[in-house]
Specification:
alpha/beta, single chain, five-stranded mixed sheet, 109 residues, 4 helices, 5 strands, Nucleotidyltransferase, domain 5, globular
Length: 109
């Protein structure tokens, strides 16, 4: 399963697919956010030899701009996850994986 992150804005969708997790290789694509977005995403994924069953899409819940895209991707057979816009969760995650000495230095300030 390939993770695909989508940064959703009013006019564009920025896609990033991790296709080699060991080496950290990614492929990116910028697509216009319009009624043809899902068709364009499917076309791009076919070029990467991926179908909806091979991909897990993650996008941030950004006001109303993500709603149509998330629904259409789900209806097309994609696994779709919406990430909350609370960046504190990311901070907690990164603090948990930091070395203790580094965390202690952060708390000194």
């Amino acid at each position: 399963m390939f993770p695909v992150g989508i940064d959703v804005s009013k006019n564009t969708l920025d896609l990033c697919m991790l296709y080699d997790g060991i080496k950290g290789r990614i492929k990116t694509r910028n697509i216009q956010n319009n009624r043809h977005s899902v068709e364009n995403i499917l076309r791009w994924l076919r070029l990467q030899h991926c179908g909806p069953e091979d991909v897990h899409v993650v996008m941030e819940a950004t006001g109303v701009y993500h709603e149509r895209l998330a629904t259409e991707l789900h209806d097309a057979g994609f696994r779709v996850s919406l990430a909350g816009n609370d960046s504190n969760l990311l901070i907690v995650f990164y603090v948990q994986i930091m070395p203790d000495d580094f965390v202690m230095q952060l708390h000194r300030f």
